[in-house]
Fold this sequence. Notes:
Layout: E1 2-6, H1 26-38, E2 43-46, H2 64-74, E3 79-84, H3 91-105, E4 109-113, H4 119-124, H5 132-151, E5 155-158, E6 163-167, E7 179-181, H6 186-195, E8 198-201, H7 206-222, E9 229-238, H8 242-253, H9 263-267, H10 274-285, E10 295-297, H11 299-311, E11 316-320, H12 324-336
Parallel strand pairs: 1-2, 1-11, 2-3, 3-4, 4-7, 7-8, 8-9, 9-10, 9-11
Antiparallel strand pairs: 5-6
Organism: uncultured Sphingomonadaceae bacterium
Keywords: Flavoprotein, FMN, Monooxygenase, Oxidoreductase
Pfam family, one: Bac_luciferase
Amino acid sequence: MRYGFWAPVFGGWLRNVPDEGMEASWEYTSALVRRAERIGYDLTLLAELNLNDVKGTDAPALDAWSTAAALAAVTERIELMVAVRPNFHQPALFAKHSSGIDRISGGRLSLNVVSSWWADEARSYGLHFDEHDDRYARTAEWLRVVDGMWREPRFSFEGRYYRTDGAINEPKPVAKPVIYAGGESEAAKTMIAEQCDAYVMHGDEPAVIRGKIADMRERRERAGKPPMRYGMAAYAIVRDSEAAARAELARITAMPERPPPGFANFDQWLSGTQLERELKLQEYSVTNRGLRPKLIGTPERVRERVNEFEAAGLDLLLLQMSPQAEEMERFAAQVIGPGVHDR
């Protein structure tokens, strides 16, 4: 299993806890990522959003690409997976921009291609927002342009969304960056199977992940493409006892007296039994369905759970923790193992 983590570009991942002690700053992020590559983490994911969807839209959010460029210069080993949304970036210019960052990093850049989901954000910045299937049509074309710019001496293209005429991109990346993408619609899975290198999923149970991997493997074979990599988001809580882990789970999912930003709309969705309400609050509290994988408990229990996901075909965990620096140290020492910790 490879271990990655979400860089806290939003100042945390918990919607119910206002201050997680991990500010959205270059100082915190750079120290965290540099330490992470010393204690066994393979990858960091930098989300790309201009508005903060965790702490409220008025809260700070680091820019993914300027942060990635700076991290490329101050790290040595860790893979830098940076999210990119095609409708926010002209592809030929993006190919040039990303090639430079890959060169700075010595070939450690990878992309997490996100076909957009937040219409209000795009409109607030004056950008076009496509309807669902059109988003994936745009992404497919965008990827063709980026790939051509990365590979060809001069690249010409005429499409529905983009056009280039003998465009030049030099120097090129050290090697073609790995393309990660996620999505559960038919349009998304078709595009990913044909044009991407890795499939990333929201958190879920091992049986569900096994089924999704089997489906994508079949699609990949039909497309005549080589095997993919598979990753999943997950929130981790490691404690010396199950009781202590459950207490931490209760802390991060408890609704404060003053509901956090954005809860009013979510509250309209809450209904049903007390158990259903509790599960829905957990979905709200932690992003990306991070509590569904149940990486919660003693080190032994969490390692068992990781092994279940590995047996299901997963090869990358994209972890969220809070407070991140302290919890990542604990996870590295007690779960990843002393053989790689503090190398």
